[in-house]
Amino acid sequence: MNPSKSASAERRSYHHGDLRRAVLSAALDVIAADGAGALSLRDLARRAGVSHAAPAHHFKDRAGLLTAIAAEGFGQLAQALREASGLREAGVRYVRFAREHPAHFQVMFGPEPLRAEDLELTTARALAKDALDRAVSGVDPGDRGPDAQLAGMAAWSLAHGFATLLLGHNLDGQVGEEDPEDTFRALAAMLFHSAAD
Description:
By secondary structure, the protein is an all-alpha fold. The chain has 2 domains: 1-59, Arc Repressor Mutant, subunit A, CATH 1.10.10; 64-197, Tetracycline Repressor, domain 2, CATH 1.10.357.10. Helices cover 73% and strands 0% of the residues. It is built from 12 helices and no strands.
């Protein structure tokens, strides 16, 4: 085997326009199809067409990759919640996010180990929480009761529970042909009567 040819092939394997994005995209595809348990950095490197060691340069290990996915997801969720007008629509945006980004959602709230102290992750989580808190603060105090924190937990539980059941196809019979977002709006209206639409 020609050593210069081998070195040249190795250099090409490390050259990639945006390796980080390519690995994240490949990981999201794997998670959507087979779950987070199916992730392997070696397999993702193969899918991205790079050396098996290349993904470790960006993520170090599997936990680093999952942490990056969760941080990206919380950032996207925070943006979606900030664009909502009122609590009910924040819940709708939450459900929509889960439906449009099921792989992110699975990693964000699943059992896979994340680097809990990662700055990007903690910042994105805080932004999402802040956006939810702002939506709750707009609810009439008579509807949310004296404890805004409990109202926030109730709103989050409703949206998260609905989204999780929906993704697991546990509501297929109940929702039927209805738009799941309309169904969620009706559920939210039952609990938060004066929440803005």
